[in-house]
Amino acid sequence: MRDTLVIETDFADNDVLLGISGRAVITKNLKYIVYSKGQIREQLFDLQKDPGEMDNLAVKPKYKKQLQQMRQYLGTWCRKNGDSFEKLL
Predict the structure, then answer these.
(1) Checking CA distances to 60, which of 44, 67, 70, 84 falls within 20 to 30 Å?
(2) Per the domain annotation, does 89 fall within a domain?
(3) Do the beta carbons of residue 27 and residue 46 sit within 8 Å?
């Protein structure tokens, strides 16, 4: 059983890629999402307290440590898996 899952996505309109990609890191308690473009590039959610993912903790100073940990995890994952998304972190 995994304790952390990484998801990759590319956004498209039917068969036309929109040039926006994203990665998500999901643990039992947290979900971190980062996009290649956009006004709000990072999101962090507490899945236990906010299962509907309505409160973006990435913008709250109280969660800076958790945000940094998730960024670091994703960066390490990208390096291990040859994912060039790392340069966008």
Answers:
(1) 84
(2) no
(3) no
Q: Provide CB contacts within 8 A for 75, sequence distance 6+.
A: 86, 89
Q: What is the number of alpha carbons within 13 Å of residue 24 lying toward its C-beta?
A: 12
Global confidence as pTM: 0.89
CATH for 43 = 3.30.1120.10
- Domains held by the chain: number: 1
Domain containing residue 58 = 5-83
What pLDDT, in 10s, does the model give residues 27-67? 999 999 999 998 999 999 999 999 999 999 999 999 999 99
Residue appearing with tokens 């307290």? 49
